Amino acid sequence: MEASPLLEETNVDLLLSESELAARRDHIVEFIADIVDDAGAEGAVLGLSGGIDSTTTAYLAVEALGADGLHGLLMPSEVNADADETDAERVAEALGIEYDVIDINPVVDSFVEAAPDGDQAVDCNPIGNLYKCQVRQLARQLGVPEDLVTRTPTAGMWEGQTDEAEMGLGYDEVDAILALHVDGPFSKSATRRTLDISEEAIERVAELYEQSKHKRAMPPAPDPL
Hints:
3 strands
């Protein structure tokens, strides 16, 4: 897999080597198996949208648990494109997993208002430590169809919504800013010079990261007595 134009131009290489990719894949598969085993569960339930994140997670979960150990949930609403449900069904059928389709239109509005955790309202996030370019890289290694790998990411919260349009930035830019400035040691000015990108873009990513920090933490609980 080739690096994105932005990463190539700036020599910021976030892609994993073949050995690193294999190690990360094995690590995630083991993580999923351990989470399910520690919970004393017989398997896992995964929401499938047909997008790159849920699809990659599904492929990894089947490696960890087998097709019988994963059950898919497709949750279409009136704001989702018909292609979303079709893509999700393709994933489930390709993996040989059972799935249910649940119409969430009656509750979607109240759910959006009452569930600020979004994608993090889950028991675990196996790909949570990967940049988007690495998720795509892993998806290709897993054999995910190319049209799903390159599908425009969307949270499906309203008709025509896309992640990149909502952020005002492409994922290549977000990955690079996260790696250099948010996760890495580069100052804002050094990141701007390295990526030839505006300070406003860097501040936007840092702001979004700060605003979503509650999604990366466990719910608060009292300290034990």
